[in-house]
Amino acid sequence: MLDLQSIGVRLGSFELADVSVTIEAGEYFVLLGPSGVGKSVLLEIVAGLIRPSAGRVLLDGRDITGLPPEQRGFSLVYQDYALFPHMTVRRNIAYGLPRARSARPAAKRRAAELAELLHITPLLARRPETLSGGQQQRVALARALAVQPRLLLLDEPLAALDTNTRFRLRKELKRINRELNTAVLHVTHDPEEAMALGDRVGILLDCRLHQVAAPQELFRRPSDPQVADFLGMRNVLPVGRVDDKICHICGVDIHVSSLTAETTHIWIKPEEIILSQEPFASSARNQFKCTVVEWDPRGSLLAVRVAAGDLSLVALITHASFDQLAIEPGRQIYATFKSSAVHCF
Amino acid sequence: MLDLQSIGVRLGSFELADVSVTIEAGEYFVLLGPSGVGKSVLLEIVAGLIRPSAGRVLLDGRDITGLPPEQRGFSLVYQDYALFPHMTVRRNIAYGLPRARSARPAAKRRAAELAELLHITPLLARRPETLSGGQQQRVALARALAVQPRLLLLDEPLAALDTNTRFRLRKELKRINRELNTAVLHVTHDPEEAMALGDRVGILLDCRLHQVAAPQELFRRPSDPQVADFLGMRNVLPVGRVDDKICHICGVDIHVSSLTAETTHIWIKPEEIILSQEPFASSARNQFKCTVVEWDPRGSLLAVRVAAGDLSLVALITHASFDQLAIEPGRQIYATFKSSAVHCF
Amino acid sequence: MTRQSLQPSGSGTWFGLLLALLGSAVLLLIVAPLLGIVLATSVSDLSRAAADREVTESIKLTLLAALAATTVSAVAGVPLAYLLARKRFWGKGLVLGIIDLPIVIPHSAAGIALLTVIGRQSPLGKHVLGGGLVGTTAGIAVAMAFVSIPFLVNAARLAFMAVPERLERAARTLGASPARVFLTVSLPLAWRGVLSGMVLMWARGISEFGAVVIIAYHPMTTPVMVFQRFNDHGLRYAVSVAVLLIAVCVTLFVVLRLLSGARDRRGDHA
Amino acid sequence: MTRQSLQPSGSGTWFGLLLALLGSAVLLLIVAPLLGIVLATSVSDLSRAAADREVTESIKLTLLAALAATTVSAVAGVPLAYLLARKRFWGKGLVLGIIDLPIVIPHSAAGIALLTVIGRQSPLGKHVLGGGLVGTTAGIAVAMAFVSIPFLVNAARLAFMAVPERLERAARTLGASPARVFLTVSLPLAWRGVLSGMVLMWARGISEFGAVVIIAYHPMTTPVMVFQRFNDHGLRYAVSVAVLLIAVCVTLFVVLRLLSGARDRRGDHA
């Protein structure tokens, strides 16, 4: 449906280069990247609010790069909702609807339908400033959906909300996408949000699009170490010399069952590394004697960094295991993981 | 050393009531709470920048509630560093030092020492605006330490930094506290930061101080469900009827090895709940047939909500287990956990 | 955020006292003459002036001429303010500078400058305006507009800048044309600031003396009448007219304060 | 953040054109008289005026009187601005209102009001000032200060408000007294704004006509001289003095713009 072809933009010191992406009809596409990387700029380029310095925007094959925003039929929802403070919720929702006297009953009906869809019917007569953040975002969504957009543009729509509201609205977004079959382009800095929502996810790092793939695929096959790092994958290691299912990394041999000739990196998930006081016999093919370097709490778990020779690995363990193993820097322990637990890409 | 006695403050619509706390010499005390709860206000009360509407501040038993900030000898470091933009790093650090002509060589020496301590010696001649966030925060710390404060006040000192810098500076803070034996009052909204740094942690929720305890103790014995919830402890359940090591909750019997008569709540850590397709024989005393309600990614793990009758539990599992169990809403599975894995408080 | 910044003993020190003393000197400079003129006038003088048809006619003339200047200027000045608040273009700094020029140009010189354009001898005055605008109400309004339009444009510009641009951008993506966005979003939200700019311009127009006295000694606006009575009849006859005029201006000024009150209160905490 | 907001075709529509047209009308109103007066003067008239000792003496008098008014006012006005930017106290709204009063009071009326305090007949003038300040340079400076002090106080107040209060609070916890904080942190950081407020006050003082003409017809400031030459000798003799005066004021104004340039540029993106 929508094609971005080699979009580039330069605003002051900030630059975005050669972004090409296609969004299909009805698709939920998430653009993921750290803040300040130009995700919102890209969104405003799609909306027609900023003209790119290079590249073209095509809608169904037609070049719309120069089309003003009001003629594109894409509505944009901002992180801070951008509701009109001088209008009631009903007038906010109806803002984009036809205003001819004859069209008014239809507009009123449409506003009521959308309020129903987003569970904000009781709020229709109120002013935006009297609403909670979550309610405001629902109104902003209803207002954006009122114009029956071909593409709904969401700029960090959940970032300003508290955790519970965020989870609830996340589900609503997916439901709206499915029920109305409206294509969505959603911009976020939160990998978790991207994974939960996106049919496909594009990763924008260092001002360029690194990878576009389905969420599961991203974890299975990140295109490069930066992507892996941004997704929070610890223990991503570059592969050196390889001997039949064994790779030599930093002087240590690691058994990898899925190793192929194309493998450039391996990823050992921190939660699949078992730490123990003594070596134990098991089907796990990799077991090393290591030294604890440091540890840090990570939510309800603990991240323990261990070193085996020059190889440095992070293992995630529970508080119970931590107490039991009496972890402290300098302590000798064993790290064990299965050869099948090592992911290659 | 420092006693806050029944401090209360009311600023506009915001209120803080009856906060009493004692900070010992050399102690690292962390005040933890969500944003907007008045943590920074409390810090500015201690600094003498805001006068409390009720209560007293005592230093070594002497009432200093009305003492102006410049006579207290507590220096304050803000989240945005608050460096003087019109002075070099050296002059920033020396700002609080004696200014008499005769004292200048000593001041210069002291600035050099502190720059050494915080690894910013190469930056001494530079202007604050040319520094990175982490470097600015080091300068702010050096400047605050230059006056040899009895108490160092830190207002979200790490919140504006990126993850790597945050972890590095976190270690520095602890080191400074230990090496210089300076007492620290550190305010943060991040439970992880509080746990990693605090000798003791005070939890400020709903404008009142709920609990003051060592980090480990907080997880073992949160004073009430709000505290548990804020610390991210899922599966905290109120205890109903109790029969000898078994408690009845929502129509389900849970074996709890450490159950006592005083127990009002139990906590089952989400990562200690095992999910399986079939029941299995083991030493674990609790095993229920459940229905999957929903699931959500949580970083590198997945949170699966399951229901056994009216009891709703969250289990944290790996992506591998998730694929293997073919988790989807409505699916019947078994949840297993040991009676010793249930924490009481 | 509302935050009280009671600095214990900070305001009670010699430094706080010094600040308060120096500040009082400034207030005295402003308040003393106003008190002086009120004390110098008697009720009978004042009521005689208020009953004087020459005085009331001149107050009416002054109010109406300034109102006309403000209304006509708003039609062109408000869109210009919006343009300056929103767009970036080459030469914008120059345009901003030109708008502020009338504030620094001495008003008597401004009057002379206006004469060269709308005077009897000027090409425009001779051929288009039928003998120029000297001595006409229209001429007075032009002189008032020249010296007071910066106040309107700047107030309106700041009001438009305070409207979040995202609201306008969101409206565009909802299908609204730039003109519709201006009329339904930008102008309603900036209205309070625009209106207070208009009141300020009106007040400045009423109080204008230097430019007006050169363009038109007759018909006589009230500021000119104050000067004329002082020259022809002496201080006592000027005082009562001046008090009436000051009362009109201060009333307008209080209205202005109430209008822009919300914004000012916000500003104090920034 | 620097962000270009090129709205494709948004500036090329009839709406953008309308805005530009209306804006041009405002610019024309301001530029036309200035062009007119420059075209109306000849080089020979101008050089004769520049060589006229009466003219050069009056320019010197005007510059010095306004400078004196500004310097003395700054000593009291800058601390007051700091007080207003930082402290909350009962009656603050009233104080802010009083400071703005001279802007809306007609200057001829302001002159009369000043006469009631520093005139020959006033108690202060008779007993303290030895016959009043009428016709003296000091009287001229007081008149200039009265009408122009709001510009200094407001500019300085905004400059102090732009200094983050946290810097001052951090300085206090580092052991600095309120006075030291003011001198080492607040004033250096607000200096640019304070200075541009002083230049603005100076420029406004130079250009004052209404209040000055009532306090002192002699010694003659340049704005008064423009008026006197127009009245006594006609337009042609006023034009050359007016052009000289405008040149002085515009030069000062350009200096002011350069001083406050950084702040303005920031404002444009807000």
UniProtKB/TrEMBL annotation, chains A, B:
<feature type="domain" description="ABC transporter">
    <location>
        <begin position="1"/>
        <end position="231"/>
    </location>
</feature>
<dbReference type="InterPro" id="IPR003439">
    <property type="entry name" value="ABC_transporter-like_ATP-bd"/>
</dbReference>
<dbReference type="GO" id="GO:0015689">
    <property type="term" value="P:molybdate ion transport"/>
</dbReference>
<dbReference type="InterPro" id="IPR003593">
    <property type="entry name" value="AAA+_ATPase"/>
</dbReference>
<protein>
    <recommendedName>
        <fullName>ABC transporter domain-containing protein</fullName>
    </recommendedName>
</protein>
<keyword id="KW-0547">Nucleotide-binding</keyword>
<keyword id="KW-0067">ATP-binding</keyword>
<dbReference type="Pfam" id="PF00005">
    <property type="entry name" value="ABC_tran"/>
</dbReference>
<dbReference type="InterPro" id="IPR004606">
    <property type="entry name" value="Mop_domain"/>
</dbReference>
<dbReference type="InterPro" id="IPR027417">
    <property type="entry name" value="P-loop_NTPase"/>
</dbReference>
<dbReference type="InterPro" id="IPR050093">
    <property type="entry name" value="ABC_SmlMolc_Importer"/>
</dbReference>
<dbReference type="InterPro" id="IPR005116">
    <property type="entry name" value="Transp-assoc_OB_typ1"/>
</dbReference>
<feature type="domain" description="Mop">
    <location>
        <begin position="281"/>
        <end position="345"/>
    </location>
</feature>
<dbReference type="GO" id="GO:0016887">
    <property type="term" value="F:ATP hydrolysis activity"/>
</dbReference>
<dbReference type="InterPro" id="IPR017871">
    <property type="entry name" value="ABC_transporter-like_CS"/>
</dbReference>
<keyword id="KW-0813">Transport</keyword>
<dbReference type="GO" id="GO:0005524">
    <property type="term" value="F:ATP binding"/>
</dbReference>
<dbReference type="Pfam" id="PF03459">
    <property type="entry name" value="TOBE"/>
</dbReference>
<keyword id="KW-0500">Molybdenum</keyword>
<dbReference type="InterPro" id="IPR008995">
    <property type="entry name" value="Mo/tungstate-bd_C_term_dom"/>
</dbReference>
Automatic annotation (TrEMBL), chains C, D:
<feature type="transmembrane region" description="Helical">
    <location>
        <begin position="239"/>
        <end position="259"/>
    </location>
</feature>
<dbReference type="InterPro" id="IPR000515">
    <property type="entry name" value="MetI-like"/>
</dbReference>
<dbReference type="GO" id="GO:0005886">
    <property type="term" value="C:plasma membrane"/>
</dbReference>
<dbReference type="InterPro" id="IPR035906">
    <property type="entry name" value="MetI-like_sf"/>
</dbReference>
<keyword id="KW-0472">Membrane</keyword>
<feature type="transmembrane region" description="Helical">
    <location>
        <begin position="94"/>
        <end position="118"/>
    </location>
</feature>
<protein>
    <recommendedName>
        <fullName>ABC transmembrane type-1 domain-containing protein</fullName>
    </recommendedName>
</protein>
<keyword id="KW-0813">Transport</keyword>
<keyword id="KW-1003">Cell membrane</keyword>
<keyword id="KW-1133">Transmembrane helix</keyword>
<feature type="domain" description="ABC transmembrane type-1">
    <location>
        <begin position="59"/>
        <end position="254"/>
    </location>
</feature>
<feature type="transmembrane region" description="Helical">
    <location>
        <begin position="209"/>
        <end position="227"/>
    </location>
</feature>
<dbReference type="GO" id="GO:0055085">
    <property type="term" value="P:transmembrane transport"/>
</dbReference>
<feature type="transmembrane region" description="Helical">
    <location>
        <begin position="12"/>
        <end position="41"/>
    </location>
</feature>
<feature type="transmembrane region" description="Helical">
    <location>
        <begin position="61"/>
        <end position="82"/>
    </location>
</feature>
<dbReference type="Pfam" id="PF00528">
    <property type="entry name" value="BPD_transp_1"/>
</dbReference>
<keyword id="KW-0812">Transmembrane</keyword>
<feature type="transmembrane region" description="Helical">
    <location>
        <begin position="138"/>
        <end position="160"/>
    </location>
</feature>
